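Table S2 (text version). Query chain:
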Amino acid sequence: MAEFETSEARSEAQDPGRAILIASAVLGAAWIATAVFAGINVLGVTYIATLPPETLAILAAVAVLPALMVILGGVAAREGVRARHEARRLADAASDLINPSARAEMSARRLAVAVRGEITALDRALEQTISKLHEVEASVTRQTHAVNAIAQQARSGADSMIAGFGRERAELLQIAEDLNNQAEMIGQAISRHTHAIAESARIAEQEVRAADELLESRIGSFGAAASLIADRTNALTGAAAASADSALRLETALSQALETLAKATNLTEAARQSAEAAAYAASQTAGAVRETSADAVEEARRAADLIRNEATALRRDAEDAMARLREAAENARGVARDAVAAVNNVAPAPAAPPVRPRTPPPAPPPAPARVAAMQPAKPPTPRAAPPAP
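Corresponding C-alpha cell output:
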C-alpha cells in the first residue's frame, strides 16, 4: 500500500494536474454518451434518420461542443496546476538557497524518523522471530520426549517379544525332545517285535525240520507225529496271530505317533505364524520410531529368523523320523506276513499205508518220556508292544 501511494505521489510530482485532465476527459465522454443516448430515446432512430443534415450537424454540435469545453477546461486546469507546482518548486528552491540549514534539519529529522521506524520494525521482527524460535524449541522438546517415550515402549515390547520367543523356543525344544523319546521307544518296540518274530520263525523252521526228521525216522508212529505236528502248527498259528495282534498294536502306536507328529507340526506352524506376526509387528514398530529402535527391531528379526529356522529343522527331523518309523513298520509287517505264510505252507503230510512186516511183532507204544523228548521246545510267546505314550 505504501509503495502504491509512493508511486502515485511520484507520478503526481512528475505530471501535476494529470488527474484533472483525466477527470475532464471522462466527463466529456460521459456528456457525449448521455447526449447521444438522450437524443435516441427522445427523438428515436427513425426520426433522426429523416432529419436534414443541418439539423444533424446542430445536434452533433450540441452533443460535442460542451464535451470539448469540459476537456479544454481540464487542460487549462492542468496547466494551472503545473504552473502552481513550478512556482512552489521555485519557492522551495529559493528558501533552500536562502536558509539551507532548515532544509538539512528537516531532511535529518525525516531520516531519523525513517531510521527509528526501521529500527522499530526490526525490533518487532526480531521479537516475532524469537517467539517463533521459542515455539519451535518447545515443539522440538515435545517431539523429542514423544520419540523417547516411543523408543522406550518399543524397547520394552522388543524385550517382551524376545522373552516370548525364548519361551516358545524352550517349548519347541521340549516337544522335539518328547518326539525323539517317543521315536526311540517306538524304534525299540519295533526292534523287540522284529526280534521276537524272527525268533518265532527260526523256532518254527527248527520244528519243521525236526518234524521232517521225525517222520523219516519214525514212520511207524506217523499218527502220533502227525498229531504232534498239528499241535505245533496250531501253536505256530497262535504265535502268528499274536504277531498279527502285535503288528496291529504297533500300527495303533504308529497312528498315535502320527497324530502326535501332526500336533507337533501344527504347533510348529503356529510358532512360525507367531514368529511372522512378531516380525511384522517389529517392522511396523521400527517404521514408527525410525532410527531410535532400529537395533532392537533388528535383534527381534534375527531371533524370529533363528526360531523359524529351528522350527523348519525340527519339522524336517520329525518328517525323517516318521519316514523311518513307517519303513520299520512296513518291514515288521512284511516279516509277520512271511511268518504267517510259512506257517500256512507247513501242512500235515498224507498218511502212508502201513507196511506189513513179514514177522509182524507188535510195535511197542512210545513211552511218554520219548514222546516228550521228541517234542521240540515251545517257542517263547512274543510280548505285546508297550502302548505309545
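Notes on Table S2: DSSP finds eight helices and no strands in the chain. The radius of gyration is 63 Å.
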